[in-house]
Amino acid sequence: MIKRLFKILFWCVISFFIYSILIVVIYKFVPPPVTPVMIIRVFEGFLDGKFVGISYVWKSYDEIAPSMFRAVISGEDARFMRHDGIDWKAVRTAQRYNELHVGKKLHGASTITMQTAKNAFLWHGRNYVRKGLEVYFTYLIEAIWGKKRILEVYVNIVEFGDGIYGVDAASREYFHKSAKDLTRRQAALLGAVLPNPRRWSPDAPTKYIEKRVKFIQGRMNSVPIPK
Question: Which residue has the higher pLDDT, 195 or 202?
Answer without folding.
Answer: 202
